[in-house]
Fold this protein.
Amino acid sequence: MTHYVRTIAASLGAAALVATLPLGAASEKIDYEAITKIKEQGLQTQNSKVMEISSWLTDVYGPRLTGSPNTQKAGEWAVARMKEWGLQNVALEKWDSQRDFARGWTNDKFYMEAVSPQAFPIQGTPAAWTPGTSGLVRGEAIVVTELTAEDLQKYAGKLRGKWILGQAAPDVAAYWTPPATRATPEELQQMELATPPTPEFGVSRGTPPTLFGGRGRGGANGFDRTSFFLAEGALGLLTTAPRGHGIYTVSGNRTSDPEKTLPSINIPAEQYGRVARMLEKNQTVTIEADIKNTYYPNPMMFNVVGEIPGTDKADEIVMLGAHFDSWHASTGATDNAAGSAAMMEAMRILKQSGVKLRRTVRIGLWTGEEEGLIGSAEYVTAHFGSRAQLPAPAPPAAAAGAPPNPAAAQFGGGGRGGPLGPLEPKPDYPKFAAYFNIDNGTGAIRGVYLQGNDAVAPIFREWMEPFRSLGMTTLTIRNTGGTDHLSFDRIGLPGFQFIQDEVEYGSMTHHTNLDSYERLQPNDMMKNATIAAAFAYLAANRDEKLPRKPLPAPVTGRGGTGSRQ
């Protein structure tokens, strides 16, 4: 009963919010017959394929770590499926530069268990691009919290054959608030204001929660503890996250040299804490493990592309996209099979519904996003243009010893930081109409981040009208970071990320061992694919391309600031 009352109240609140929204004056031509065809194909369970696509990308081909054989298999499957649907120019398009990934990596076997003073299994996942154990090994655990070279000297000669816990056990808070949430009318209304985003909502979700204890790196003055531990003959490093509840986060460093690093294992806080607390009681804790990781030199780096050709404006381009890669502790469902499946389904909807497209609609599924938006940046540079990254001048305040300005990092380089040079456009640069991206989990689309582009607001407001009943009500002028629309935005092309409900993204699934198919919300996924298809259709059929915001001038001289994107 309480849930029902809250739902009604939320609906009334949303209705009140809708009544206050300015309508704008775009006077967009919307073919509601075509929109109905798109809805029928995308929102009816018997027609939708979005969850079938999701299952293939997660259950069969997940995880999809960039540079791994599994990712290429997933890409080949996506190519075959889109060809079946009748898309054209479908391919694994190689990056122009294949040098960003010297090696691919997979975890092929993981076994870890405490064998004394009591036996209990230890769940975990190796950090990507770290080595395995070369067979079954056994050693004692030790907590090492010291950071400096001087403080670590007391361990010289004492770490051989040891498993190192790099920090004390974290405190784990209870779930005092529900881990799954949807945006309230009040939160959506707050997003519409042109104020800095709050930490709770509307910020970049491209940065995972900080790993508790990291991987043994990051000591004082840049001192690398891992090198010390390796030289001392340690077996490996154990790390965790303070979130607990069996959840841990995983990532990795693709530039790691296998000969110069140790096995690094991410484990739940509960098992990490149990070992650490036993060690505090002067108990000898022995851990055995058998971890097999495989390196693949010089893997093929690619993006998955395909398109539906347009008619009278076929040389102009509308794009849908999402990142295809994932981390590897689970199958990469909400990050980001959800976005990839929704965009593949959007292309299927457009093809199957038979709606006419004036411009060509193209899909791009990017790899290398988790390592810094690399795949989409490669694609944009190859097809549309580039702006060179310039060295960031040190601000005068920093020279005076003032603390850094945390806001400064938001505006440089379209997600890469620092000032940008002049635009070097390619021939297709003026033919580009729009890019739409999904990469904030499985949650339903609630609106669009305008990315500072005021001119598109009245257009999108009218485009959202057919989807107001699905909860899509909100436009915010704010930027959002951390995902692939920034590769387009950084060179002045209209690239947009959809606003989505959080659901469990930040609390449970983002880069964690719980990011599996079960965390996907089918009704939300169907809505998202349908809305993406409709926005691509509307962008493809306007008389004019979407307006572009002014391209910030390149930075010159030492007194300039980064290009504000």
Q: What stands out?
A: The first strand starts at residue 88 and ends at 94. The chain has two domains: 31-100+299-386+410-418+431-541, 103-167+212-297. The first helix runs from residue 2 to 20.
